[in-house]
């Protein structure tokens, strides 16, 4: 009886990670899915001072890939100004390695050591928590020593070894939704992390493969991802990339859709937005066709904050 009462208390408070890691996890999953009523309570995932999943909209932003230090610092200065003016919490994002470029000749970043050094400086100088991708098992532990959030790229979201190794660090994990995966199936990589004892998880939508070389954003995805109970982010700028066209070509991104997609996603109930930004997007060394200019970031975000504040009132 005491054990049953303990289970009831844990389920009531949604403190599932310690229980799911026990030998009873299969039974408890069944009990949880059978008896919970209504949507799962949203989990608050704390990243530095940013409370992901709380009422305020938060922003994940920065250049797509780590570039020259001057570019990185200039971007951070802009993000600091936008954060303070609009009162929006910011997580600084940039990839120390882009391992999925369409050509081996394209710039892939400065690598693990130099990339982390630059991100660590931004963290120290500007006070931002920092996020970057991990692609390989050997990157996970050194990245966790610097990064506040370890991101699993969309293409790799089902890689069990990578998800488990990342979860073992205890760091917050940003699981990007694979372009090939039904949104309700994102519970599978989520469960892999939980089974390692880590429920500090953020889920990010970034569009679906729709035919050849095109992406669409299905608003139903936001519903399914929110049903997991974890904070949900909309990666707006990656959603307008056009595959098969180099990102240096302006035709490689459909920026005209950024306002309508971003507003639809925020109105659908996301907790955060993911916007890659650069002082001179045309000169960006990755995703030049889809990144937003830092000069335009403030005006782009203003209506999204207003929409989010309205949407929160009707949850």
What is the percent of helical residues? 25-40%
Taken together, the total number of domains comes to 2
Q: Which outline best applies?
A: globular
Find the CATH topology of the largest domain. Answer: TIM Barrel
Report the portion of residues in β strands.
15-25%
Known CATH architecture of the largest domain: Alpha-Beta Barrel
Strand order within the widest sheet?
A: 3-4-5-6-7-8-11-12
Number of helices: 11
CA radius of gyration: 19 Å
Q: Tell me, what is the CATH class of the largest domain?
A: Alpha Beta
Count of extended strands = 13
Tell me the series of helices and strands, N- to C-terminal.
Answer: HHHEEEHEHEHEHEHEEEHEHEEH
Outline the biggest β-sheet. 8 strands, parallel, barrel
- N- to C-terminal distance: 36 Å
Q: Residue-averaged pLDDT, rounded?
A: 88
The SS-based structural class is alpha/beta
Describe this structure in words.
- The chain has 315 residues and is α/β, with parallel strands linked by helices.
- It has two domains: 1-38, no CATH class; 45-312, Aldolase class I (TIM Barrel).
- Helices cover 39% and strands 16% of the residues.
- It has eleven helices and 13 strands.
- The strands form three sheets. It has an eight-stranded parallel beta barrel, surrounded by seven helices.
- The model is unreliable at 1-38 (pLDDT under 50).
């Amino acid at each position: 009886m005491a054990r049953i009462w303990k289970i009831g208390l844990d389920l009531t408070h949604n403190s599932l990670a310690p229980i799911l890691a026990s030998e009873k996890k299969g039974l408890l999953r069944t009990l949880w899915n059978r008896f919970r009523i209504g949507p799962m309570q949203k989990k608050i995932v704390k990243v530095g001072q940013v409370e992901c999943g709380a009422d305020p909209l938060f922003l994940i932003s920065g250049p797509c890939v780590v570039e020259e230090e001057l570019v990185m610092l200039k971007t951070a200065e802009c993000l600091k100004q936008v954060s303070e003016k609009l009162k929006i919490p910011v997580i600084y994002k940039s990839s120390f390695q882009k391992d999925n470029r369409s050509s081996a000749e394209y710039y892939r970043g400065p690598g693990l050591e130099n990339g982390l050094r630059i991100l660590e400086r931004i963290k120290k100088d500007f006070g931002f928590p920092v996020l970057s991708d991990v692609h390989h098992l050997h990157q996970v532990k050194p990245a966790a020593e610097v990064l506040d959030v370890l991101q699993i790229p969309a293409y790799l979201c089902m890689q069990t070894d990578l998800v488990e190794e990342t979860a073992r660090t205890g760091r917050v994990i940003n699981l990007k939704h694979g372009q090939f995966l039904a949104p309700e199936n994102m519970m599978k990589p989520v469960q892999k992390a939980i089974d390692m004892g880590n429920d500090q998880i953020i889920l990010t939508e970034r569009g679906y493969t729709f035919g050849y070389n095109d992406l669409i954003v299905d608003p139903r995805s936001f519903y399914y991802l929110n049903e997991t109970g974890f904070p949900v982010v909309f990666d707006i700028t990656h959603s307008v990339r056009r595959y098969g066209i180099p990102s240096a070509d302006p035709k490689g991104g459909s920026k005209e859709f950024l306002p309508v997609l971003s507003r639809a996603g925020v109105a659908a109930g996301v907790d955060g937005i993911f916007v890659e930004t650069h002082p001179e997007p045309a000169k960006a060394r990755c995703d030049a066709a889809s990144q937003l200019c830092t000069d335009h970031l403030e005006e782009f975000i203003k209506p999204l904050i207003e929409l989010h504040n309205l949407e929160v009132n009707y949850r």
